[in-house]
């Protein structure tokens, strides 16, 4: 779960800062990631979407095909033997 806060504009900075600090305090207590973005600034949206996708599809450390890892180990051993 993550919280995305949309910055609108510089209408009332003090009210925006107060709301933002309340949101980030709540998120830290609940151990949830908090992002401040602007819908008008596309680059600010990248980080929350990257975070969300890495949580949904974690990077695999091991191959799903153990035969391939065994084959690559054998190939590496053969290459080392030829280099010596």
From TrEMBL:
Presence of keyword Secreted: no
InterPro entries in the record: KBRS (IPR042227)
Keywords: GTP-binding, Nucleotide-binding
GO biological process: negative regulation of canonical NF-kappaB signal transduction; Ral protein signal transduction
Molecular function, one GO term: GTPase activating protein binding
Protein name from the UniProt record: NF-kappa-B inhibitor-interacting Ras-like protein
